Amino acid sequence: MDRVERNGLVFYQFEGWRQIPVKHGVFTRIGGVSDAPFDGLNMGGNVGDTPENVRTNHELMYAASGVRGDRACSVWQIHSADVVLAKRPARNRRWLGTADGLITDQPDLPLTMRFADCTPILLVDRAGGAVGIAHAGWRGTVRGVASATVRAMVNYFGSNPANIYAGVGPAIGPNRYQVGEEVVQAVADHFHTTDGLIQRDPRDGSAYLDLWAANRMDLERAGVGAVEVAEICTAENVHEFYSHRAEHGRTGRFGAVISL
To answer: What are the CA-CA distances from residue 240 to residues 144, 218, 226, 235, 247 (Å)?
Structure first.
């Protein structure tokens, strides 16, 4: 990914998207106004930070992205595979609905979500003029939120999956994401394999899930034409990203945004 510094903020953009007319960024925690343990660019409104700080941080993110913050759309994330179609901002409330996928074909209608180890997935239809964003923790991953968001773009906009570029952003990496056997079974049930998705520690047999590879597989099975994976581990880079696992649950949320 390309690392960008702008207005005191740091964010990442997918290298393969340089020639695509879309504004996007996966933001770090660098910059912003929040105090520890949420320092500094916290986007999470339900982690204990002040509403004023969170609002200011969003405004800073929108300005650095060059998108219309007054038209930004989001959802209340619930670790699902549900997808919401955004046509306009919600009136008199912050969320369009409860979901973990969000799509639009409207120009200057930014889509945004929040993360702290879960996987940001950004999508752009190069031919049809549509974008999407998804939030994939292990539950969303095994429920197929990535492929569900692609299918929603196909159903609502007539997108050809072969024309969709997908970016799998910074998330907890395969060396740090230890999971229980119920997660291993859920991976096997959804993907019909655990090869390349689950690794075992040779010392004790404990399981580690590769969210990067799992979401790549889900996207490729949906027919997506190109998938770029950041391969940046949030748990190993808490100087740049919030990590729920590495910071023992007391942390903020970093933001991602995409707009036609």
So the answer is: 28, 27, 27, 10, 13
What is the Cα–Cα distance from 258 to 260, expressed in whole angstroms? 7
Nearest by Cα to 119 from 206, 213, 201: 213
* Residue found under tokens 């539950």: 139
Query: What pLDDT is recorded for position 128?
Result: 79
pLDDT at 91 over 90: no
| CA–CA gap between residue 219 and residue 252 (Å, rounded) | 28
121 touches 146 (CB < 8 A): yes
217-230 pLDDT per residue, tens:
999 999 999 999 99
pTM of this prediction exceeds 0.85: yes
pLDDT over 90 at 109, yes or no:
yes
Query: Angle 181-191/211-221 helices, nearest 10 degrees?
Result: 20
Q: Under DSSP, is residue 125 helix (H, G, I), strand (E, B) or coil?
A: strand
Q: Domains of the chain: which residue ranges? A: 2-171+225-259
The one-letter amino acid code at 58 reads H
Q: Buried (b) or exposed (e) across 167-183, using 16+ Cβ within 10 A?
A: bbbbbbbbeebebeeeb
**DSSP code, position 17:** G
Domain 2-171+225-259 has CATH 3.60.140.10: yes
Strand partners, 227: 166
User: Which contiguous run of DSSP H or E holds residue 84?
Assistant: strand 83-85
